[in-house]
Amino acid sequence: MLNDKTSPKKPMIITEAKPEHYNQIASFLNENNQIHRHLDWLGTLDWLGYQPYLLMIKDKKINAVLCATPENDKSAWVRTFAAKKNLPIEETWQKLLDKAISKLEENGINQLAALALHSWFEGLLSISGFKHRQNIVVLEWGGKLPSEVPINPDIEIRPMNLADLPEVHTLDKIAFQPLWQNSLAGLTKAYEQPGISTVAVCQGTIIGYQISTTMTIYGHLSRLAVNPEYQRSGIASALVYDLLRQFVQQGFWQVTVNTQSDNSASLKLYDTFGFEKTGEEIPVYKLDL
């Protein structure tokens, strides 16, 4: 006789990701799922061991992932959201998001942000209370150096070295608002990429820095910061001029940089060097907790 009793469906459970989930998460991310990945120096798997990093599991299999780990003690980014295509995406997102927000609030985080890199993800952000605050704009250099950039003779620009990173990190924290700060781990990862990294030094103290990456014939200015006490004194211009000069010498003819659409000082600086908007923009959404 056939048993007409059906076993109850096992519910989805939400659990914190741990280092032992590494292989399972790696496999899941390589499947044909809906995936949002933040533009981050650290990959999704690099954040294992930090929270909130949540897994939605059924029958011991991952069905969705949400990583929203903080960059500092005030703000966090949605670093990864991935879900199987057969899941109700809005419900899955909201359940994971609610758990993540609860964890962030416990730790005193007051802002969660995300880059809307896909229309489907932008839709999720909008329905869950995130607000569109600004855009990231992409600029490209025209390839022509200014004839001359005044440089303060008291300022030395030299290559960055590994021992500089703690001081660079301290500078980064005072140069940027919390949401746009980089962790020491993130700056270290950026520094380790192929490229050109330099610091501006005054009387033995690092007062500015830039980190750039390179690939074949392309260069990208990834990070530029100046101590607020030394801003509007030509330090940023000197760092950019020195960088572009090195790019020219090494044969990199296409150089890009990203900045915020409402950062007028940054836009003015890059305009001085002949950078122009490419038309590519990435919406930035924020949620106050």
Automatic annotation (TrEMBL):
Any coiled-coil regions, as ranges: none
Taxonomic superkingdom: Bacteria
Residues making up the signal peptide according to the UniProt record: none
Keyword annotations of the record: Acyltransferase, Transferase
Domain N-acetyltransferase: from-to ranges: 155-289
SUPFAM superfamilies named in the record: Acyl-CoA N-acyltransferases (Nat)
Example GO molecular function: acyltransferase activity, transferring groups other than amino-acyl groups
This protein's name: Putative acetyltransferase
Biological classification of the source: Bacteria, Bacillati, Chloroflexota, Anaerolineae, Anaerolineales
